[in-house]
Amino acid sequence: MDDRPAPPLSPEPVSGPRDGDLPAYLGNGLIGIRVREVPLFVGMVLVSGLAGAHPERGIEAAAAAPYPLSGDLAIDGVWMSEQPWAVGDLRQSYDFATAELHSAFTYQVGSRTLSVEVVTFASRNAPSIVAQEVRVTADGPCDLKFRAVVSIAGLTGRIARRRTDTPGEPEPAGDGSLLWETAEALGQCGLALVTKAPAAAGRQVLTWSDAGPLCTEYEIRLASGRPVRLRQLAALVPSVLHARPDEEAVRRVARASREGFDVLRRCNRAAWAEIWEGRIVLVGASSRHQALVDAAFYYLNASAHPASPASTSIFGLATWRDYHYYYGHVMWDVDAFCLPPLILMQPDAARAMLAFRSRGRPAAAANARLSDRQGLQYPWEAAPGTGQEAAPGAGDAAHHEDHVSLHVARAFSLFADATGDQRFLEEEAWPVLSGVADWFVSRVSRTGRGFELLRSMGPAEVPSPPDNDAFSLMAGADVLRRALRVAERLRKTAPDAWKAVLDDLYLPLRSDGVIAAHDDYDRREEKGATPSPLAGLFPYDYPASPSVSRKTLAFYLKLWPDYVGSPMLPALYCVWATMAGDRDLALKLFEEGFAAYDRPRFHQCLEYRLDHAEGPAAGPFFANLGGMLLGLCYGLTGLVVDDGEPDTWARRPITLPADWEAVRIDRLRVRGRSARLVARQGAERAELSFS
């Protein structure tokens, strides 16, 4: 096995228009931007915690902010925006190792052609900053004009304040600032811009009106073949992080300007080099599968940051105009699939995501009381600003898909166990674990068969919620076990009801020994192929007997052709096949259940496979890519993280997909130390070692 470090595999460069594919998505966990083929054309940007009223649904949703890196070019007074058909030779490449998007295009007016090269990135070290360098070369002498614009085109909201001066200062700290207010005044975002150009360029900050965008214009004479560089730095600060965010944005961008573009770029590259030390290496796998794992690793890490105030959505901080993107709401998929791998990769970022749930405890308590239950019932679709329920319309799923709270509680428990952070356990994890345990006990009903979960829907969303969804019951048992264990560690008195429910919790079992998805389950029913009981076996580690586990795996694995193409659970099929000992099937299901969701343009994993999609392609979808990473970190390695010593966490013999020799992660964070995890095909256990 080759242990030499290798760089991540970036997507293949692309050329020409997207033709319906999604634009590139860049992010740093606080800011996410969609960049078009011509990066100066207006894209879209989301800022964590920025909420507004959705223009169609009226609900609280993630709100797009003004686009900070747009611009325009003119040759001898003819603007690119006025004749975009003169743009050609579109090329883009995305370097995942450095998190930089490189774009190139030409712009021709008459006999004169500009060659334009653009580098765009979102800074990890200064997470409120996005940066762009535009390099322009002419094929002959001409007059170039360049406009750097913070654009408000296509947005709902208003400019509450616009400044191009810095009060009390003889010279402005930058080009200007905006205070953007979203629809129905649900949130505000401050933006500030600084631009740089060669000293020979003429410069003017266009005043326009108090309701207009920010715009700085440069004019310079170009010589043939001699490039000029123009740079844009912009800060975006949501009001959830600062009460006067436009003023803070000015301070942040001024600091970035003093450091300079080159320093920001170098520091960003260094930050990503450190993140990539935790790259997941598939020894023996095809380069295509390794590239898809690298893409998933990149997009997840690019959408999480310690500065994030509002966790992340199931599309990260990505959105686009042709789809709802679930309104940027925080949903159970993030807690169940994305947080477990992040806890080992970026624990500080994972903690910030959990902090959003901690701040949402009052909303979860109110939600429980409104449903006549105890404890904490987290919302099905948590709004990014308030953390309250924001499901659209009648909120049918919110009425019956109760399992979200169980994933939230488990994520808190995993973080406490993986980090060994006693203070977090006492102050953050215990209130959530105990609150969700109280809720679960109040949610089940005592019957002659034990404690049952009536009219509760699992991952298979059907019109009429069944009784005793197995996935929810198996997850509930895990949360009760964890809550009881933590109560013992902290010397708390656990309610007697927790153990009583755990000891007598009903689970539907078919006559053939297979765990039924719910009462009266029929594989021919609508969404009957949904493998939700398998998700109870992994990742929820339900302690079924070997016979029940074997029969349940065999039963639902046979149904995979009727389920793949849907979102979420198909990414876990590979792990389940290895648990059944079928290496060939595991490789096939890695392809069918994950790889087939890929779009080659920048490897954005889609929500639905295109052969199952009924609407626009949407991605990157974090339930799919997070589920796959969860499977690699915990499933194929047999890792069960608990409060015991880490050398006891590896608990299963290693079976990998066909041709894979090992899964190797050279740097994880475990109990405050750097660890290395290697799972070799055929080994009795994975190796977790500390450096």
From TrEMBL:
Region (Disordered): 1-20
Biased composition (Pro residues): 1-11
Keyword presence, Hydrolase: yes
Domain of life: Bacteria
Domain Glycoside hydrolase family 65 central catalytic: 326-526
UniProt keyword terms in alphabetical order: Hydrolase
PANTHER family with a match to the protein in the record: GLYCOSYL HYDROLASE-RELATED (PTHR11051), PROTEIN-GLUCOSYLGALACTOSYLHYDROXYLYSINE GLUCOSIDASE (PTHR11051:SF8)
Name recorded for this polypeptide: Trehalose/maltose hydrolase-like predicted phosphorylase
